[in-house]
Design brief:
Layout (H helix, E strand, L loop, with lengths): L6 E2 L4 E10 L4 E9 L5 E7 L8 E7 L2 H5 L7 H15 L2 E6 L8 H12 L4 H7 L12 H8 L3 E5 L3 H9 L3 E6 L10 H10 L11
Parallel strand pairs: 5-6, 5-7, 7-8
Antiparallel strand pairs: 1-2, 2-3, 3-4, 4-6
Helix pairs in contact: 3-4
């Protein structure tokens, strides 16, 4: 068992505590971390043995309160979260990092402001830019020390975003394989998914969902 006393980690991340977390798919071990500089709190949901050196099925999931907790159909975040946890449970081994980077890093209130602009016709990239933000402000420097704490050496990363793979590799994280994590479109998020593919470079088989 991991100690519940805060312990320092590299790159300004501290491990705080760990406990079992029964979930619909399996009982995961949840590890809590804090970022010393920003004060943000991040989680690692871990299942099975992940420190044996073999590539680990993994997902980096940025917080989306509207999608994860309020079941919004505007995005694919909630279904991606559930699908990733289900895939890890099916495999019996894996890690999901839950990162507090709401709205691609612009925060919850600004995301609602961006939603208001999207209702007026802007896409998700245009809305962020209108508010004075880049299309994606997320960073991933906290991931390496979190994976290091868990003993994870290599990832089979569930993502459709090649930029995320590049960012992780830039922080020294080995990606052995990209595992697609596509969610069927609905009338409310079809334009959002098209924008992710056309403007943000996400690898989505949109033609199969038309």
């Amino acid at each position: 068992m991991q100690s519940t006393a805060p312990t320092p980690a590299s790159d300004g991340i501290d491990f705080v505590a760990a406990c079992d977390l029964p979930m619909p798919w399996a009982t995961f071990r949840v590890h809590a971390f804090t970022d010393r500089q920003s004060g943000k709190e991040h989680l690692a949901l871990c299942l099975g043995t992940v420190d044996d050196g073999a590539p680990v099925l993994a997902r980096l999931h940025s917080e989306c309160l509207t999608g994860d907790a309020l079941f919004s159909l505007r995005c694919d975040c909630g279904p991606q979260l559930a699908a990733a946890l289900q895939a890890i449970a099916k495999e019996g081994r894996g890690v999901l990092l839950y990162l507090r980077q709401e709205g691609r890093g612009i925060g919850l209130v600004n995301k609602i402001r961006a939603y208001a602009l999207q209702q007026q016709g802007a896409d998700t990239v245009e809305a962020n830019q209108h508010l004075g933000f880049a299309a994606d402000l997320r960073t991933y420097e906290m991931c390496a020390p979190m994976f290091q704490h868990l003993g994870v050496q290599s990832l089979r990363l569930m993502t459709n975003n090649p930029r995320k793979i590049d960012a992780l590799r830039a922080h020294g994280i080995e990606i052995a394989e990209r595992v697609p994590l596509e969610i069927e479109a609905n009338p409310h998020n079809r334009h959002y998914l098209d924008t992710k593919a056309n403007k943000l470079g996400h690898l989505l088989r949109r033609d199969e969902q038309e």
